[in-house]
Amino acid sequence: MLDLTNVKAPIETANGLPNGCYVDADLYQHEQNTLFRDNWAAIGFGKDLPKPGCVKPIEFAGLPLLLVRNQDNEIKVFENVCRHRGMILVSEAQQLRGPITCPYHAWAYDLNGQLRKTPHIGGPDVHKHDTVNHCDYPLNEVRSHQWRDIIFVNIGGQAAPFKTYASDLIERWQEFDQPVYHSGPDSSFSLSVNCNWKLAVENYCEAYHLPFIHPGLNSYSRLEDHYNIMPVPAYAGQGSTIYAPQISDDGRAFPNFDGLSQQWSSGAEYVALFPNLLLGVHRDHCYGIILVPDGPDRTIEYVEIYYAQDAATTSAFADMRATNTTMWRNIFVEDVFVVEGMQKGRHSRQYDGGKFSSVMDAPTHHFHKWVATALSG
Asked: Which domains does the chain have, with CATH numbers?
């Protein structure tokens, strides 16, 4: 295992994470088994399960998982594996009209994961057997939580409750504890990026690169308008005192969240909730970006934009939503060559993790310390 002691040093003397943390397959697997299983990781969005009976299979941290919305409108997460012979239960997102039924021997589970049917288990037309008590074989449930329409799991099951894990961020953004509204495909997109997932987090955390990589954004939300956010171990990011995008030429604006304080009339914040969620909040909309690692050098970014009021999802705002989505997509695409360039740079033989600016790189250093602490136990 790498010596990460100096990564945890004060920013003035610390190095960043060494190259192996970005290119080594064994270290990548170690991350999957620690960072992503021991903490609360983001795996999906509630809007993808709009009605009771909706199910969605995913693979996360090497595990086959199944997202389920039950009849009580709650979202649960199970291992997507039949308790009989380990067959994958569901292969594509769908709305079920009946139970979750294994395609192999038709063992069937309700939407709460309870085993309900075991056809022919005791022989032809004998559907019960005294050696199999249905209550003893529910689907294996994975500890989960939903916040801001984002679905989190703690695969290891030992992390503090989510509301404790993210308590500071929940409190910081308590004014935004309101319903959010998604308009459908016009507010969704994804990017496949040839970089380690950590580089996407590092880049998102800091505003230092703004004038060089995002000149359009920097024209109205300048580097000097930004501040660092890093009060507790589980998240870091940046805020802006100027949020003034030109979404419509005729002066129209999206409706705002209710009851916001004056701070948010012209401010916005952008935070990475470790390990793999990027969030942005504004007076009129917010977004979430789930980073899904796909090996040491590839990351899929799933981006969903939500609005403060249901009215913003109507046809009256369709042109503005399209403009907003395009704006954010273009901004995120501008970052691609940077993170992909840093990934290529991690194959340098003499690069040692780099030197931080103690003023501008504090959020990134904060993330590096969190990773180093988690990897070294």
From this structure: 42-158 (2.102.10.10), 168-375 (3.90.380.10)
